[in-house]
Write a structure and sequence with these properties.
This protein has 71 residues and is of the alpha+beta class. The protein contains 2 helices and 2 strands; from the N terminus they run βααβ. The protein is globular, with a radius of gyration of 13 Å.
Length: 71
């Protein structure tokens, strides 16, 4: 299994703010959400990798098999 797909529902205003922030930071919303999940894992003592291996060489070695989709 290379990744697990998860769905996240946000308030429309929060989604717009997140998208705006991603544009301002020249980042992808997906990457910002993964950063937040990685931080949550660290704060709660979870050691599993968060980012899925993509096969594109962009994923870090400490990545997990979970992805987050924003709709």
């Amino acid at each position: 299994e290379s990744s697990a797909h998860l769905m996240l529902y946000l308030h429309p205003d929060a989604a717009k703010a997140l998208k705006r922030y991603a544009v301002d930071q020249n980042a992808k919303v997906h990457d910002l959400l993964l950063e937040a999940v990685e931080e949550w894992f660290r704060r709660h003592g979870l050691r599993e990798a968060v980012r899925a291996e993509t096969g594109r060489g962009r994923a870090r070695a400490t990545n997990h098999r979970a992805t987050v989709a924003l709709t």
